[in-house]
Specification:
heterodimer; A: 321 residues; mainly alpha; MetI-like fold; 2 domains; two-stranded antiparallel sheet; 2 strands; B: alpha/beta; D-Maltodextrin-Binding Protein, domain 2; four-stranded mixed beta sheet; 18 helices
Chain lengths: 321, 458
């Protein structure tokens, strides 16, 4: 039965013939239409962003998840293989090594990469002269392409005529094998990564530091607080939110370390710098096993997702307390 | 139309355009691989065109394309620059961008065939005359276990000992008598390293799977295997006294003699750079490295020599060839094979090819392009004769390589080669970067990894 349009409501009810207010459904539709028309440009722009995100971010993620459970050769239709790709990863002796190495990199990167930019930002904030010069100097490495940074440090780390050993020698310390030893290779990579990336985080910390009202420091000084007390009781609490967000971002970024081991060590010596992403890369682009590579990326996604969830929950609970 | 209404219409059109454009993007990347040109010609895309930075090789390639198209007016060759890049191979295949005729190293065909990423050309090649003149061992690389053919070899090499004749002379060694045993290699490395100024006696690779590739070469050179097949199942076969002996030698050259330099984790380009700079005495390599050293590092052919793999046991065979896109139509397969045959294989083109290279002042006399050692029987003899006739590089610098190779057992790369190389990289790194590394431990660890990789062989 065709639906009765609200504008065709029966008039023979004996009601007076004055203008009747439209029923609620009509009002809602009209309002919606007007709202859509008013915001059409905004919807158009939003649609563009949504389409781009859907095609270049969400679709690859969904495809990656599907690939984790498939065997593909890009010629025949994909074959569903259940958890075979995951089983293959768990059977690979390098799988556990890659995770341990990545966690090691993240831990050292947090020690170095979290503290160094913060301390640098505090020092820059205290500077009275040549502020611009030092800010540019700290930020400069960020502007270098990552591969250039890696090549530059390969030269610095050269165990023969390298700059790093020359520097050690200048202060009377013995030479180090740097990248050529499984005991020092990972730390050497963290140093490169910290040097290359600390510019951005330093600037963010610096911006946060400059929002701290000067009165707080003044009253702390009047109360007799020294430099470290001011840092501990004023600076850190005032920048806590920025510190928490950057810690989260840094863990997510360092767990995905790739360029440095790929260009500088190829995962060696003796697998000491094989990271999760480097192993994933090998599966995808050296072994052409995209199923296992996708399974590995799914595991990383889940691990980072769990970490981010737990971290946010903990920090929110602490903030509420 | 009011201004507001016009703005709305424009915004609506813009939004529709954005959506259509975005949706159309993926379609742009999926060009049909079986299009025919409007004139009824069969158009085929082919890899192997040298980059424009290699001006001479590029000129020769482009001239060949023009000549081939003239001889075959029904075929249109669309050359693509470059060779095999495993990083982009699958993406190109998935996106419909993989060339109809694509280049491969001998490392690749086994896994490509297992993944069904090449066309079966058995029926197409059975009538090709040149097939019977190619070395059967090289053809086998492109066959599956049922004997079906998926590609054709176009060049090959066997690994040898590449050495710097100038440094040999400087170190008091006879460049015409390159080392024939591993003890002689060690002695020569010591003498060259003793020249000082950072001169390295012997260098080896240990990064990005190239170390594993070289350890396989070492294993073959010592008479070992890497993997053996029993009852259809592959297992690792390198944890033995022969490979341990190779590693002991490397360790002694590195740590006792200090003849391998301080810097390790080297790749092929690193050792070539060292050799080109006159800083390196020897490394394991093939003759096709020599033109690279001369062209890229302004060296002289007189300064380099290649000897057969020392020890007289065996060596690793490598090389290159072409396979066909599995999505290619029969017409394209036919046209593609015609191109491969004419450009790289046809015996009646050996002499014209040599002359073409001579005209461009390119080296003739090396067991490499344009005279690769891929033929057998009369064709091989004829090529050898022509090579000697037109040689413009000192053939004596490679005499030891050519003589010695006839006595060596040539071994092919193992299955799942890249994964095995990744596992063996570790062994090379251990020996070359860790003075206290235990060879037994390194080999046992690698054995477990290689067995895991071999368990995937289909």
């Amino acid at each position: 039965m065709p639906s009765l349009k609200s504008s065709e409501a029966p008039a023979s009810t004996g009601s007076p013939q004055w203008p009747v207010e439209a029923p609620p459904a009509v009002r809602t539709t009209t309002r919606l239409r007007r709202k859509i028309n008013d915001n059409l440009t905004a919807y158009g722009l939003l649609a563009a962003a949504l389409v781009v995100f859907a095609l270049f971010s969400w679709y690859p993620i969904v495809r990656g998840v599907l690939l984790s459970f498939q065997e593909v050769n890009f010629v025949d239709p994909p074959k569903w293989v259940g958890f075979d790709n995951f089983a293959r990863l768990f059977a690979d002796p390098l799988f556990a090594t890659a995770w341990l190495n990545t966690l090691q990199f993240t831990a050292i990167a947090l020690l170095l990469g979290f503290a160094v930019p913060f301390v640098t930002a505090v020092l820059l904030n205290e500077l009275r002269h040549a502020k611009a010069f030092f800010r540019v100097a700290v930020y400069l490495p960020v502007m270098l392409p990552p591969v250039v940074v890696a090549m530059l440090w390969k030269w610095i780390y050269n165990p023969g005529p390298g700059l790093a050993n020359a520097a050690l020698g200048a202060v009377g310390l013995p030479d180090s094998a740097w990248l050529d030893s499984s005991s020092t290779a990972m730390v050497s990579l963290v140093i490169v990564s910290t040097w290359a990336n600390m510019g951005s985080t330093t600037l963010i910390y610096l911006a946060a530091l400059q929002t701290i009202p000067g009165e707080l420091y003044e009253s702390a000084e009047l109360d007799g607080a020294g430099l470290f007390q001011r840092l501990w009781h004023v600076t850190i609490p005032q920048t806590r939110f920025v510190l928490m967000v950057l810690l989260l971002l840094q863990v997510v970024a360092t767990m995905q370390v790739f360029t440095e081991p790929y260009v500088m060590t190829g995962g060696g010596p003796e697998d000491s710098t094989v990271t999760v992403l480097l192993l994933l890369y090998r599966y995808a682009f050296t072994y052409n096993d995209f199923g296992s590579a996708s399974a590995m990326s799914l595991l990383l996604l889940v691990a980072l997702g769990i970490f981010a969830g737990v971290y946010l929950r903990l920090t929110r609970t602490r903030s509420e307390d | 139309m009011g201004r507001l209404a016009m703005q709305r219409t424009l915004a609506r059109r813009a939004a529709v355009l954005v959506v259509i454009t975005a949706l159309g993007l993926p379609a742009c990347g999926s060009e049909s691989s079986n299009q025919q040109t409007g004139s009824g010609k069969v158009a085929i895309t082919v890899t192997g065109q040298p980059p424009s930075s290699q001006a001479v090789e590029r000129r020769i390639f482009d001239a060949d394309v023009a000549e081939f198209e003239k001889l075959n007016p029904d075929i249109d060759i669309v050359p693509h620059e470059g060779f095999m890049d495993p990083k982009t191979f699958s993406a190109k295949l998935a996106g419909g961008q993989l060339e109809d005729v694509y280049y491969v190293y001998f490392t690749d065909p086994a896994s490509i065939i297992a993944r069904r990423q090449a066309a079966d050309i058995t029926d197409h090649v059975k009538d090709m005359a040149v097939i019977k003149q190619l070395q059967p061992a090289l053809l086998d690389i492109f066959k599956d276990r049922n004997g079906k053919v998926y590609g054709l070899p176009t060049a090959n090499y066997s690994m040898g000992l590449l050495y710097n004749r100038a440094l040999f002379t400087k170190a008091g060694l006879d460049p015409d008598k390159p080392p024939a045993t591993w003890d002689e290699v060690r002695t020569a490395a010591q003498k060259i390293a003793a020249l000082g100024n950072g001169t390295v006696g012997f260098a080896d690779l240990s990064k990005n799977n190239q170390g594993g590739w070289h350890l396989v070469t070492w294993a073959y050179a010592m008479g070992s295997q890497i993997a053996r097949q029993e009852g259809g199942k592959w297992t690792a076969d390198f944890n033995n006294a022969k490979v341990k002996e190779a590693l002991r030698l490397l360790k002694e050259m590195r740590w006792t003699d200090n003849a391998m330099g301080d810097k390790q984790l080297l790749e092929a380009t690193d050792v070539q750079r060292l050799m080109g700079a006159g800083q390196l005495g020897m490394y394991l390599g093939a003759p096709d490295n020599v033109p690279v050293l001369v062209k890229e590092f302004k060296g002289k052919y007189d300064d380099y020599g290649v000897a057969a793999m020392p020890g007289g046991q065996g060596t690793l065979l490598g090389g290159e060839g072409y396979m066909i896109n599995p999505k290619a139509s029969p017409d394209k397969i036919k046209a593609g094979l015609k191109w491969i045959d004419w450009k790289y294989l046809a015996p009646d083109r050996i002499e014209p090819r040599i002359k073409q290279y001579l005209d461009e002042k390119q080296p003739i006399g090396l067991p490499a392009t344009p005279t690769p050692d891929i033929y057998t029987g009369d064709t091989r003899a004829k090529q050898s004769e022509l090579k000697t006739k037109y040689a413009n590089v000192p053939e004596k610098n490679f005499a030891s390589y050519l003589d010695g190779n006839t006595k060596l057992k040539g071994n092919l790369e193992p299955p799942n080669a890249q994964q095995i190389y990744a596992a063996l990289d570790n062994v090379m790194q251990g020996v070359l970067t860790n003075k206290d590394a235990t060879v037994d431990h390194l080999l046992s660890e690698a054995e477990a990894k290689v067995n895991s990789a071999l368990a995937q062989v289909k």
